[in-house]
Design goal:
alpha/beta, 2 domains, Spore Coat Polysaccharide Biosynthesis Protein SpsA, Chain A
């Protein structure tokens, strides 16, 4: 049962049904507990090899204009535990610090959700940052739209990448309602560090799937939306999301492989309509083509031109691109020349970035509202 707005950020009562669904994790060691008194928000920070960045992240949380929160840091079996605990030492009296064996970001977040005491949870990765009004603006969205289960916002990208200084929504615009269909085709794309959600709603959706080490957030948002959860977003930049260009190639492959696993799970576990099944199948073909293209890039850079040509040929079965067809021909006949054809090669190198930003916009014509409901609103910036 949801409560009504109060003078704090938000007041909320958790239904007994949710309480009965909670489970304790026996392998979680509670190191210290210094919670706020009946906080409205539990800020959840998974920590793995996080010693260098987590202090800056915590400072950004403590700088919030909305102070109605507790912080839960979960050491997810981090190999830098000694360094991490030295970095956390100045904050230990103001945070809840939990330690567990490594179970990935999904397991760390689930541990914190189940240990949390607030009706709302806000996620931030240990190398991301919030601007001072992040929590205030996110909670304002809930106050003004009490039907929402999750709210997300835009973030400024920073770090070792050509995208430094741009906003995430410049690269991945959210368009229309955050329905299951729009999330599936990434017309709406969510950064986990930019989300605040109702704790009970996440528990009802089944929490993060701990079998996933990648795309576990994508999986949960899809399940939340499919089950009738309402998602809102605002286009304000309220956070800073760190990007690491040095590991982009391997990260892209892991992202695609994770999304393919999510699609397989959707087909096996959700009662999808025929149109939704068609959409998932098309997304599988798109992701497989992206994976073939990414593999082709890496094979080309490794001078394995024969395998690169095969990968590009498979990718072009989906893309039907004259540029890819030309690149495939050159790889078959004069592979060394392709490195000097900057226009074609530049296009190939950037193709994944474009596809991850746009995500098959033609799919939007096939999308239908499920049961006539409107699960999302785009929130007006104030």
């Amino acid at each position: 049962m949801r409560g009504r707005r109060s003078n704090s950020c938000f007041n909320f009562e958790c239904d007994n049904g949710w309480r009965e669904s909670l489970r304790e994790k026996p392998d979680t060691a509670v190191e210290n507990i210094h919670p706020a008194t009946s906080p409205s928000i539990s800020v959840i920070i998974p920590a793995y090899n996080a010693a260098q960045c987590i202090g800056e992240t915590l400072e950004s949380v403590f700088a919030q204009t909305c102070k109605d929160f507790e912080i839960i840091v979960v050491n997810d079996g981090s190999p830098d535990t000694q360094e991490l605990e030295r970095a956390l030492a100045p904050y230990m009296e103001r945070i809840r610090y939990l330690k567990q064996e490594n179970s990935g970001p999904a397991g760390a977040r689930n541990t914190a959700i189940l240990q949390s005491s607030a009706p709302f949870v806000a996620f931030v990765d240990s190398d991301d940052l919030w601007l001072p009004r992040y929590l205030a603006e996110q909670m304002r969205a809930f106050n003004e739209n009490p039907q929402l289960d999750l709210v997300y916002c835009d973030a400024l990208l920073f770090g070792d990448s050509p995208l430094d200084g741009r906003s995430f929504m410049q690269q991945n615009p959210s368009a229309g309602e955050a329905t299951f269909e729009n999330l599936l085709t990434e017309q709406c794309t969510i950064i986990t560090s930019c989300t605040v959600a109702r704790r009970a709603s996440l528990i009802a959706a089944g929490l993060f799937d701990e079998n996933f080490y990648h795309s576990e957030d994508f999986d949960l948002w899809l399940r939340l939306a499919f089950g009738g959860g309402r998602i809102g977003y605002q286009t304000q930049v309220l956070a800073k999301h760190r990007i690491h260009d040095a590991s982009l190639g391997s990260d892209v492959r892991r992202l695609i492989e994770g999304e393919l696993k999510v699609h397989k799970k959707l087909m096996n576990t959700l009662p999808l309509s025929s149109s939704q099944i068609e959409m998932v199948e098309r997304q599988v073909k798109l992701r497989q083509a992206e994976l073939d293209l990414e593999n082709g890039k890496q094979q080309f850079l490794a001078r394995d031109y024969g395998e690169a040509a095969k990968s590009l040929e498979r990718a072009n079965d989906f893309y039907r691109s004259r540029k890819l067809r030309f690149a495939h021909f050159i790889l078959r006949t004069a592979p060394g020349a392709l490195r000097h054809m900057y226009g074609v090669w530049h296009w190939i190198l950037k193709r994944r970035l474009k596809s991850s930003s746009v995500r098959s916009k033609k799919m939007n014509d096939k999308q239908k509202e499920v049961s006539g409901r409107k699960p999302c609103v785009e929130l007006q910036d104030s």
